[in-house]
Amino acid sequence: MATTTQLRRAVASSFLGSVIEYYDFLLYATASAVVFGKVFFSSLDPLVATIASFGTFATGYLARPLGGVLFGHFGDLLGRKKMLVLTMSMMGIASFLIGVLPTYAQIGWLAPAGLVLLRVVQGISVGGEWGGAVLMSAEHATSRRGLWASFTNAGAPCGMVLSTAALTGTAALVGERAFLDWGWRVPFLLSLVLLGIGLFVRSKVEETPVFKAERKRSSAPLMDVLRNHPRTLLLAIGVGLSAFVAQSTLTTFVLAYGVQAGTSRQVILNALTLSSALAVLGILGWSAASDKFGRRPVVLAGAVIMAAFGFVLFPLVDNGFLIIALVLGQAVIHPMMYGPLAALYSELFSTGSRYTGASLGYQLAGLGAGLAPLLFAQVQSVSGTTAISFILAAFCLLTVVCTLALQETSRTSLTGDRNAERGTGQLAGAPRPNRAGA
């Protein structure tokens, strides 16, 4: 009973932590598009200000691998829970400080410099959060590891819905002028309330039994991954890269393309909110399927279908079917590639370097989300959207090749006990139920 209670707490903590992290991280993304150019780069030409604003947005993605390495190192040495309390605190405080940051008109260049610094802190925080949150669920699980671990991934679209609702709701309540003057700060200030709730939930979760049982802890987890598991790390990056490229294509580039195609901003906002909410169900559903059918078949099917879907994505938007395109892409197809990654990355590395290896693989693959929109904008200006579809298909092909090069991981034990390779995360030495009760 205690194990079940701790699993539920771990899953709730991981999901809530992911929601809070991505609420803050993606809140910045939306604000950078509609507010920051006017508030922090007001001395620049409007177009240059927008580019500068998006530049600070990109720094968050570039900082994520650093967070993965930093918190992965100490998470493998000191424990998952300690690092998760720290990452959540960093994110909440950084977001709150953005909400009280003086404008360019008040303190000059110190305002954009402070914004960049706080964005880097956000990136480091979210880079360290994912690996620990996934492991808190995966290493507590005694069955259905794919499903429980995926609650961390499901928190990302939920955080997107929450951040979008917070900004649009505030704008509707205070009006456009007041929103630009001070209203945009309110959603950032609310981060402190979310931080308090998150820390309370996280305080109820114990350290994972898998970590506590580990006796061979490396003093240099990063070197262990790079020296002893370079092939696994590279394949992990390749497996996840197309999922992130597809994610940013659907949630960033296609939205800008929809505006160009004549779709109203409100329709785009509604489509993004609906598809993000449904994506939570898609992630959980396909991750549960990976427990039954294996990680590889689900990810492979998703990559193949996404490669084909890329060639109908832009025609759908051109013909006014943006909502259908986003729901199919973000809520049905993309979760096949993305949902099982939580358990898959956890299963690729040993306990002593699992936090570091999983975080580094995931966050390096995640660079695709930050760079793809910039790449596709250049490609579109030269070759049109058909070329983008071919590039997306090429990334999906890379995922297919890398997934086939990996062995199926869903039947492995996270304890390293070869005799316990049941695919259930069962602790070594714990009673083993029969197959029907697994």
Radius of gyration, taken over Cα atoms and rounded to an integer in Å: 21 Å
Outline the biggest β-sheet.
Answer: none
Please tell me what the overall shape is: globular
Strand content: under 5%
Low-confidence stretches: 417-438
Helix content: over 70%
Mean pLDDT: 83
How far from one another are the termini?
Answer: 16 Å
Structural class: mainly alpha
Task: Describe the protein's architecture and organization.
The chain is an all-alpha fold and 438 residues long. The protein has 19 helices and no strands. Helix 7 packs antiparallel against helix 14. It is globular and about 60 Å long. It starts with a helix and ends in a 33-residue tail after the last helix. The C terminus is likely disordered.
Name the features.
single chain, 438 residues, mainly alpha, 19 helices
Please write out the topology.
Blueprint: H1 2-34, H2 36-40, H3 46-78, H4 80-100, H5 104-107, H6 110-138, H7 145-174, H8 176-183, H9 185-189, H10 191-203, H11 209-213, H12 221-228, H13 230-260, H14 265-293, H15 295-318, H16 322-338, H17 341-347, H18 354-383, H19 385-405
Helix pairs in contact: 1-3, 1-4, 1-6, 1-7, 1-10, 3-4, 3-6, 3-18, 4-6, 4-10, 6-7, 6-18, 7-8, 7-14, 7-17, 13-15, 13-16, 13-18, 13-19, 14-15, 14-16, 15-16, 15-19, 17-18, 18-19
